[in-house]
Design goal:
heterodimer, A: mainly alpha, two-stranded antiparallel ribbon, 8 helices, B: mainly alpha
């Protein structure tokens, strides 16, 4: 079981690879690996969208057009119309941009050798801050500054409790962008650490076999097959998580916007 | 110690997500026509519960 003895060092090496490492310039001025893949995924998304817009037709033909139309109608039906309700049209561009941006980042990060742009807290915190400003602005536009602050606490609560609930709601509103940022970051980060750990286990078990082909080395490498199978399963789950996290981020944004704007009868 | 603490923190989130999935499955079995809506609510509930576990993860990483 010497493979397990080597594990902590390898894991530490793996985790240190997930810090922001500059690939061009330094940390103050330059590109880190995350910024690089962020730009790469953005360019990829722009190219895909440009091709799609060129193919736009009343009746879509082909796999590509239909896939894109399905994705967009998914954001439109399941996120915008279902959650926000009648004035979904105003928020659709923002929500669709968020969804496809995060999705492109997550999916690019899944490909081995690439890093997700959303795998660093800086990117997700920036996204969450944009969302926070957006939904507060929506609330202020719908009710006015004082009205929005008042609307944090539900109406019809007796006087002393009113203030307590208002304070709790204020704290939960401030916590929203923090949880949004941490949720996306941690899902990407933890998922990649888990995938990396299992990949390391496979290589550690297979290493003696690669150096010398003997019967005992073949036997020692057998647990590696098991770890490779688990790695495959986790890889599939991570692809699923990439979609679910983009969906969760968008749907929570929609819920916050709806809550800020809803008019009580 | 941080790892043990994180493991303890995950118990709550695990129970919460399990309960949410249970409720979602029961609701879908009783009323298949609300499948889409129930799934959305399930994902949202799971996301809120998961956020707590992830905060524990961050704290375990930061405070060592």
């Amino acid at each position: 079981m010497e493979a397990f003895a080597l594990l902590p060092d390898e894991i530490n090496k793996l985790v240190s690879e997930f810090h922001s490492i500059p690939v061009l310039g330094d940390l103050t001025m330059g590109l880190t690996q995350y910024t690089f893949w962020l730009l790469a995924s953005t360019v990829l998304l722009l190219v895909i969208m440009a091709v799609f817009v060129k193919k736009l037709a009343l009746v879509p033909h082909g796999t590509f057009s239909n896939l894109m139309e399905w994705g967009i109608s998914f954001v439109k039906d399941d996120v915008c119309e279902q959650i926000i309700g009648k004035n979904w049209k105003r928020h659709f561009p923002f929500l669709a941009t968020l969804f496809f941006f995060i999705l492109a980042n997550n999916v690019v990060g899944i490909i081995p050798g690439m890093k997700p742009g959303s795998g660093t807290i800086s990117t997700t915190a920036a996204l969450a801050l944009v969302v926070f400003i957006y939904f507060v602005a929506c609330g202020v536009r719908a009710r006015g500054p004082i009205g929005y602050l008042k609307s944090l606490a539900p109406e019809g609560v007796a006087f002393p409790l009113n203030i307590l609930i208002w304070i709790i709601e204020l704290i939960s509103t401030i916590l929203r962008p923090i949880t949004l940022a941490i949720r996306l970051f941690c899902n990407m980060f933890a998922g990649h650490i888990v995938m990396g750990s299992f990949a390391i286990m496979v290589t550690l078990f297979a290493q003696p076999l690669l150096q010398q082909l003997t019967a005992s080395n073949v036997l020692a490498a057998l647990p590696g097959v098991l770890f490779a199978l688990i790695l495959l399963v986790i890889y599939v789950i991570e692809i699923f998580v990439a979609f679910v996290q983009a969906y969760v981020f968008t749907i929570l944004t929609a819920v916050y916007i709806q809550e800020a704007e809803e008019v009580e009868e | 110690m941080g790892v043990i603490g994180y493991g303890l923190g995950v118990i709550g989130a695990g129970l919460a997500i399990g309960l949410a999935a249970y409720g979602c499955a029961t609701a879908m079995a009783r009323q298949p026509e609300i499948q889409g809506r129930a799934f959305t609510v399930f994902i949202m509930g799971a996301a809120f519960a998961e956020a707590l576990a992830l905060i524990g993860f961050v704290v375990a990483l930061v405070v060592q």
